[in-house]
């Protein structure tokens, strides 16, 4: 049944249907409403979840780790400084192979303090060992919350995951969302199978040991092996979800008018919607432009990104955060993807939308139109910046 | 109440903390851990923040823990045990877990008084059902004897060294036990490794309550205190006899001093046996500093006596 709801509500609905045993959260704009909706479900007795209203995000992820190691299904949500505070423990959740899914309402990082959207927080968690997906709409935020939970808990994976949804653009705007029936969603996610839970006191296990140079390297290699399982699992779960929901998500990236394009943009998140408007406008004028939206950001689908872009002549990669002192993080990934291709597009890196700065379809049309006019010279270009 | 025999019998039945760890010779921490674990009858799940105990007992692929145990980071043991206990409540509700399990944290003074205080405070306020044991050796021993807020005034530590200008730690230690009392939890106690039966009794009394319970246990560190390796018990006993480390408990807000030394032993007797205070006995200003130290000890002891008088369990507060 189609309903009108905000991105917050869409994520909270998915969480309610997943019904984790433990949810530990700490409020931060623009994430707070997810926690508030969930607190309502708990306080109204709609879910059996133990809500742990912790005193910080660091403790939120710490409580999630404790609960997951104990044998519980757990979730949390955060943004910006909250993610920065909990990221230490996110590395540990990944090192312990704990399937904790975090909804990340993307927001800029201080200083200066700013509550609006960019992807600095997602990039901050980039190397933590959690898989990350980016959502274009509230519908995707709902769908990928369910999908991420199943990927995280897959026997071959067992890693934390982050579902990115752009702060305000997705969290606070009302959109049409078609959630699954409760029973269908529950069946899709399935029952949680803990591995070596702490609460099995007859079989005591030591979690989070100390490992010296004689073992640490191998343990980290094993963690990388789990990460490498994700692409296959991702496709498998997407297919299962398509069967369940009728919504087909075909792969790691979403291609829009790309097959015959000679110029294209690469983006993450809600900007894809704006970019589609720009592409449509230029296509109406007969220009061969297209868009590549990346759903699965970590592990990065190098092969598929390359396959989608090799025939394009000029590609603009849009990063919604600065990697200070370097080219954009997404740009670097796209560049790496294309390294081995015989033919490859000229790449341009654009930084846009920091701290919630608007990005319009007109601006993206301009970028697409201008692509190829400048030399590809490993220089950051800025969209909508006063200089 | 458990005596030596029952503790030994329990250990014979199930060794919860095994030998073969790499804690230093003469370290008092294993005695505390074994006593606490043996004083609890039900199955136990334990957690530790980063520190000597964690590093020396969990070296992969070995482990000294024969109970389920988890280490996550340095500053979050209070939050980790909150999660474990929340999982226990949730899974008890759904019928997945059926037996009574108890939850214990063993944390160093650094991981408890300093970096972990926020997580501990949060867990106490939320009322999770667990026992927090601070294994208090009065400094960051694991990283090389740096001062913590549990380090006593004047003590020499690597970040509060005896210099020409500043001789040792200038500040008094923080009174964490009283900070925990301020959280109005059902059971708060102070114990010492020299008084193991008192410790076991306290654990047993504490575990009768639902909700957060806290024990601040003075342990010793031959490396950091610069004392002989066989002196843990003597050192700890002197701390109690000099009233530097009072053994007391606060049960539902009521104070009880468990041991009142018959004679007044000056704190100097404790200070002079430790290398970390050696400068006090060489420096011309040492006498003055020892007098200040004694004054602080007396003040805290007298405060405690007054609290016991005003807030004891025998109805003294009425009238
Ligand atoms: C965030 C963070 N900061 C610093 C450290 C380094 N560190 C590890 S253990 C430790 C000191 C532990 O001291 P304490 O808690 O008193 O326990 P002890 O080892 O003395 O028993 C420090 C500073 C760390 N692991 N994590």
Automatic annotation (TrEMBL), chain A:
One Pfam family linked to the record: POR_N
Keywords linked to the UniProt accession: Oxidoreductase, Pyruvate
GO MF annotation, one: oxidoreductase activity, acting on the aldehyde or oxo group of donors
Pyruvate flavodoxin/ferredoxin oxidoreductase pyrimidine binding domain span: 13-237
Keyword Oxidoreductase listed: yes
GO biological process: carboxylic acid metabolic process; response to oxidative stress
SUPFAM superfamilies: Thiamin diphosphate-binding fold (THDP-binding), TK C-terminal domain-like
Taxonomic superkingdom: Bacteria
PANTHER family named among the record's database cross-references: PYRUVATE-FLAVODOXIN OXIDOREDUCTASE-RELATED
Name of the featured protein: Pyruvate:ferredoxin oxidoreductase, alpha subunit
Species annotation: Bipolaricaulis sibiricus
Organism phylogeny: Bacteria, Candidatus Bipolaricaulota, Candidatus Bipolaricaulia, Candidatus Bipolaricaulales, Candidatus Bipolaricaulaceae
Automatic annotation (TrEMBL), chain B:
Stored Gene3D superfamilies: 3.40.50.970
TM helices/strands, residue ranges: none
SUPFAM superfamilies (alphabetical): Thiamin diphosphate-binding fold (THDP-binding)
UniProt entry keywords in alphabetical sequence: Oxidoreductase, Pyruvate
Protein name, as recorded: Pyruvate:ferredoxin oxidoreductase, beta subunit
Domain of life per record: Bacteria
UniProt keyword Glycosyltransferase, yes or no: no
Residue ranges annotated for the Thiamine pyrophosphate enzyme TPP-binding domain, each copy included: 50-217
InterPro entries given in the database record: PorB-like, THDP-binding, TPP_enzyme_TPP-bd
Gene Ontology terms, MF aspect: oxidoreductase activity; thiamine pyrophosphate binding
